[in-house]
C-alpha cells in the first residue's frame, strides 16, 4: 500500500474516532431535553388554540403552509404539525422552554410534515417551520415571551 493511501486511511479513522463519541452525546442530550417521544398516542388529538378566534384558532400561515401545535389531552403529549401545504424539503420542530421563553431547546428539525409527540408538562412550547430556507415560528399562543414571541403553556 502506498504511503499516501495509508495516511488517508489513518486520517479517516482518526476523524471517525474523534466525531463518533460526540455524536452519541449530542443525541442523548437532545432526547433528554426534548422529553420522551412516541408515535403512538390516544386518538383524541386537537391543537392549541382550537376554537379561539383571537388566537387564529391556533393556526399560523406562512408561505403557503398552515402549521399548528397539536396536543393529545389525555396523556399530555404535543406535536408540531404542518397541517396543510407541506412540500418535500420543509422542516418542522418544537421549541421548548422551562423559563417562560428566556431560553429554549429546539426539538428537531424533522424533514416531514410533523414532529414526534413529546411530553412537555409544565413547560412552554411553540412550533416552528423552515420553508424555502426561511424560518417562522407560530404567531399565536396564550403566553408572550421576550421580544413579543408567542408560546403555549402546558
Summarize the structure.
Helices cover 20% and strands 37% of the residues.
Task: Describe the structure in your own words.
The structure is a single chain. The protein is an alpha+beta fold and 154 residues long. The chain is built from one helix and twelve strands, in the order αββββββββββββ. The strands form two sheets. Strands 1, 2, 3, 4, 5 and 8 form a six-stranded antiparallel beta sheet that branches. It is globular, with a radius of gyration of 19 Å. It starts with a helix and ends with a strand. The N terminus is likely disordered.
Write the layout of secondary structure elements.
Layout: H1 3-33, E1 37-38, E2 46-47, E3 60-62, E4 65-72, E5 77-84, E6 91-97, E7 105-110, E8 117-119, E9 124-131, E10 134-137, E11 143-144, E12 150-153
List keywords for this structure.
about 150 residues; alpha+beta; six-stranded antiparallel beta sheet; about 20% helix; disordered N terminus
Amino acid at each position: 500500500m502506498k504511503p499516501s493511501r495509508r495516511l488517508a486511511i489513518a486520517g479517516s479513522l482518526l476523524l471517525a474516532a474523534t466525531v463518533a463519541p460526540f455524536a452519541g452525546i449530542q443525541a442523548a442530550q437532545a432526547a433528554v431535553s426534548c422529553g420522551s417521544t412516541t408515535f403512538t398516542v390516544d386518538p383524541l388529538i386537537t391543537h392549541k388554540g382550537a376554537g379561539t378566534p383571537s388566537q387564529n384558532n391556533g393556526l399560523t400561515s406562512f408561505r403557503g403552509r398552515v402549521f399548528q401545535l397539536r396536543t393529545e389531552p389525555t396523556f399530555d403529549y404535543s406535536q408540531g404539525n404542518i397541517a396543510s401545504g407541506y412540500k418535500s424539503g420543509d422542516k418542522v420542530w418544537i421549541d421548548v422552554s422551562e423559563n417562560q421563553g428566556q431560553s429554549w431547546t429546539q426539538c428537531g428539525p424533522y424533514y416531514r410534515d410533523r414532529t414526534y409527540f413529546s411530553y412537555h408538562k409544565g413547560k412552554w412550547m411553540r412550533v416552528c417551520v423552515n420553508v424555502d430556507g426561511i424560518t417562522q415560528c407560530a404567531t399565536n399562543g396564550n403566553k408572550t415571551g421576550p421580544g413579543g414571541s408567542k408560546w403555549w403553556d402546558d
